[in-house]
Every structure is written in C-alpha cells, then in structure tokens.
Amino acid sequence: MVKGNIINRDTFLSNIRENLGNIPMNKPVEKPEWSVTPQENVLTNYDQAQLVSVLQNQCKEIHTDFYSTSLEELNQTVINVLTNLQATSIVYTADERFTQTNTEQSLQDLDAFKWDNTNREKSVEIAEKADVGITFSDITLAESGTVVLLNDKGKGRSVSLLPANYIAIIPESTIVRRMTQATNYIHHQVKQGESIASCINFITGPSNSADIEMNLVVGVHGPIRATYIVIDDW
Amino acid sequence: MPMQIGEKDFKQRVTSGIADDFMRGAVRSAQTRLQGKRKDAADELGDWEEWRTLGSEIRRHTIEHLDYYLHQLSEKVAELGGHVFFAETGEEANQYIQQIAKRKHAKKIAKSKSMVTEEISMNQALEEIDCEVVETDLGEYILQIDDHDPPSHIVAPALHKNKEQIRDVFKEKLAYLKSEKPEELALFAREKLREEFLAADIGITGCNFAVAESGSFALVTNEGNARMVSTLPKTQITVMGMERIVPGWEELDIVVSLLTRAAVGQKLTSYITALTGPKKDGEADGPEEFHLVIVDNGRSKILGTEFQEALHCIRCAACINVCPVYRHVGGHAYGSIYPGPIGAVLSPLLSDYDEYKELPYASSLCGACTEVCPVKIPLHEQLIMHRRQIVEDEKKTTLSERVAMRGFEQIVNSGNLYRTATKMAPLLTTPFAKNKVITKGPGPLKHWTHARDFPQPVTERFRDWFEKRGEQNGKR
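Output (structure tokens, whole complex):
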C-alpha cells in the first residue's frame, strides 16, 4: 500500500497546541477511564431468545418485515418472501453462508446474480436494476433492529443499497444486545492490529426521510422496503 | 453559500420571520414533534443523565487533546492510502478541492449533507471552475432547486417549506407533474437523483465523527444518499470540521447513540456508515481515491477560551428544537447557517461580533437548551458570556445604551438619586399611560411596548410598601 499524502499538518497542529495552552509536542495521551458506563446496562441478562423478541418488536418501529425460520426451512422462507415481493431480478453477495445454508442453489435457479468483485461496472449495473438485494448479517443489534455488514470483496456495498427491496438473513448467533458489542468487536480488531472492513454499514430498516413537513416517507435513496429473516437455530 | 445568510439587518430578518405564518406553523409542529421524540427516546434508553455525563467527558477529553487525535487520525488515513489535507481557512480547503476536481476532469459532483461545506461556500468554489454540484439530501436538494434558498435548521434544512411550496418548485424547475404528497415528491427526487449518483465523477461527504484509532469516519443518515456518494463515484472527498472526532470505536458508540436520540428520537438512524480509507484491492465498489479535508476556519481560536465547550457540539439540533426564540423567529432570522442557541454561541465565534453581535441577545436565557444538550454544553451561560464580552470588552453596544447604562449606574449607586428617581418615575410616565398601562413607550421603552404593554410604575415604592407592612405586622 502506497502511503497517502499528509499536507499542512505541522503548522495546523502546532496552532492547536498553542491555543490549547502551549502543550508540548508528542506529549503522550492516555485515554481516561470514563466515570460511568451506562451502555453496559442496556438489555443486560437477556438471553438469545429474548434478544430475538426485542429485535422482532423493534422491526415494527423501523417498518421492516420480520420472519423467523429454521435452517431447514430457510430456503422455502426466502422463496416465499421473494414471491411476495414479486421479485424478478435478484442480486446477492458472494458469501459462503449462502452455500452453507443451501440457499445458493435456489437463488441460482431464480437466475439471481452473485456479486462479482472482478467486474465493477457489470455488478453495479445489475444491482442498480435489481428488484431485491440479499445479504447475510455479520452482527445484529437487537436494541435498534440493526444489521451490521462488514463489506469486503464478495460483500459489495451496492447489494444492500441499490435494489428497491433489501433482505437480510440473520443467523441467530449474530444477534447481540446493542451497538456497544459491535463497536467493542471492531475496537478489539484495531487493537490487535487487524485490518478492519473498508466499509462497515449499520443498517436499520429501509431508507427514509422526514425532510418534507416532518412527514416520514419510507424509501428515499436506498431500499424502499426491508425484510429480516432470522434463522433461529444457526 | 457562506455562513452568513439572508438580509444584513437582524431586526429586518426577525420581522420577516415573525410575519411568515406558514414558516411559524411548520416550526411549531416540527419542534413539538421532535421534542416529544427526543424525550421518549431518552426515557426509553434509561440512565439518560449518565449517558450525557459520558458524552460530555468524551467530548471534553477529545477536544483537550485534539492535536493528538488529529495526528493519529491523519497517520491512519495515510497508512490506508488516503490523502489528508489540513486547511486553516475555508479558502485553503476550497482550493485543494478545486485542484482535485480539475485533476479528475470532474464535471459532476454528488454531495451528501455537510454543514462545514456550507460554511466555507464550497459549492460556489466548485461552480466557479464549471463543476456541477448536486445536493443529494432531500431537504438540501429542495433548497438547491429553489434557487439556493438557505437552510433554516441544521438537521432538517427545508423545515420552513410546506409540501405545496415544494411541489410548485419541482413543477417549475423540473417539470414535475404529480401531487404534493410527500411520498410522490420523494419518489420523484429518488428517480432524479439516482441518475446523478450514477453519473457523478466525485462524491463529497461531510463527517459526523472521525475515529482516530482506525482512521475511520462515520456518516449518520436516513436517506441513504451518503452511502450512494461513498459507493458509486471513483473519487471521494470528505470534509470535516476539525473538532468532529472521537478517540476510538467505543466512544463512537456513545456519541452516535446520543446523536440519533437527541436529533430525531431514533435508536439508530437507517444508516450509520463507517468508512475506512479508499476501497481495498479486489473490492468492486467504493472509491479508488480518498481525500480527507480537515477544516479549522476559526475553530482553533475558540480553543483555550471560555467558549471551548462550544466545540463539544455534535450537531444534533436538540437545543434548536426546544428554543422558544427559534420557535417564533425561525432559522433564517439568525442570519447564519447555524441557527438557534448553538448558532447564537458559535456564529459570533466562527465569524465575529460585527456580524453577529445581536445573536447572543436572541435568547430568553430560559436554559432549556442547556438542559437538553446531550453533551452538556452550558449554552445559555455561554450566551451570557458573549453578552458580557460584547458590553465590556468589545464596546459593541450603541453609544446611547452605554450613556444610559452609565447613568443607571450612577443613580443606583447613590441613595439620594435612587430615591428621587423612583419617586419621579410614576410622574414622568403618566403622559404615556392609559389605565395604568403604557402601550406606546418613549425612547428605550419603545421596543418593549411594540410587542407588549408595560405597567406604569405605581406611586407607592417597594421600600415604602415594605416598611409599611413591617409596621403593620409588628416588628419581629
């Protein structure tokens, strides 16, 4: 990786140090222990089944359809949802979990397009025209009803963004209490010196706007409709 | 669009705000709705005061060590192959952004919502070199289409417009044929803007929070336009005010949780998008080239002063949504892209008292703003500090006011003069009073009686009344 340029930093930062009260350069900074940690008190002691029901309830708030299914029934549930959406064109991420859950074959039978990281133009063009985009959730936040996508080569950013409908398949094991658990995970990655995803999306239902007279309009630039399918034994 | 908006004269702006019945109705209903949503979200979360304490500690620590965290951020971004430009002024930032646009032969630029780019007039700078800049936030898009009508709220910029006005703007400028239903208007904008996203050479975003430890930055949106802007164009530029940063991901959780609740009462907005450098090798979508522009533009001169806490602001607009003055005069009356209590604190700091000396007085000092601020900025106290500076240090008040104040000082400091004055007051005001009420006051009273009646001073002075009562009750 070629290092990027940093321009005008020295004068800019020395000006800040001067104004802050002549702080010496390179003075080490320790992040303090914060005096309170209210984020740890949210949904404490909830077991996995309870978190699923929090997620389900939150889906009503965020205008998102919610389905719960088993690993065995997943395939049929996905097909039912696609039928309900009257989907004719589908795009999904190159994620091995589609194979592991035996959904890949039925998607292929429906002529669904698997994100192709080697062909930007084609992948974006197909995603832009697709009725439905399908991804797996990497981390799922019960409190807010959020799926977290750690985008990478196979998991293109466009799949959850450009199609009119979005389906997130949520393994129950990915469900955590709230954003705190997800950011702790990422912080841990950073601490270990691991490279984090170039794009991490916290997606909470379909896109919306209240810019016109504060009336909520569901569906603006991103998907107009969102569906979550929880696999309750995976 | 520069920071300064609308007419020059503060009183004129206020007068036209008060006369705008639709705008006032829109502001009232928006304020009521947003206040309710914020409160419900805070109650549901629980421990709200602890959350505020934590938010305030994080912001204080970060700003006190801003040099360290900006250094760390820029190192990380560069390690990932991104470029970082530190801009002391708006002009420097604009020149750098112009250079990139020229090098890329950019014709079209898609932009998601960013207050700092408004502050430095970035769109104008790009238009000067023949780039078309398309605002893609629905509210900003409406304003841009309507001949660059200025924003009146930092979260909902088109708050002052009703749906019929928006329909007419779309009709006139974009040959829109449908009704004023928000769903139809939004769908129309979706289709129009989809073409723009796909055609844009460069995407420009603001920055809600940068994360120093990993060189990331987070965009907090509902519409998905910021995702479009950071997914489709091959070059991305992100512009951030230098204070919009937290140390790490753990702190990002806290400030985002506070922001979405305080701003719109949501647990999280539809999209929180955390971007780290340009796209990686082998990834198909996302920018190939990434530039981060960090803007000072007057912020550093606030550091180390009694106003430093103003830089803790996370731009949620909760203070604007509870302000009784904003409720009556609307956003444009402030004459700044930053309206409301935080605008009245920040605008004179980022600009100067010559431009904004009236704003610290556009407050009843009721303290509602301070009470709702998710990071505990003592907003109304900062307004009092501004007033003190304007009077004592800057001598920005009118000569007649200063003479009057000096006179007042002499009278209240002298027992005899004070007694005489309080005796004279009822007599002197008699010619202006009707039924013991003054409706058209002279001189300095005029501004007061323009809006409401002033009771005529009664003939019995407080001290006399107090003494008499003491005698009646018998001395204790």
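The longest helix of chain A spans residues 48-61.
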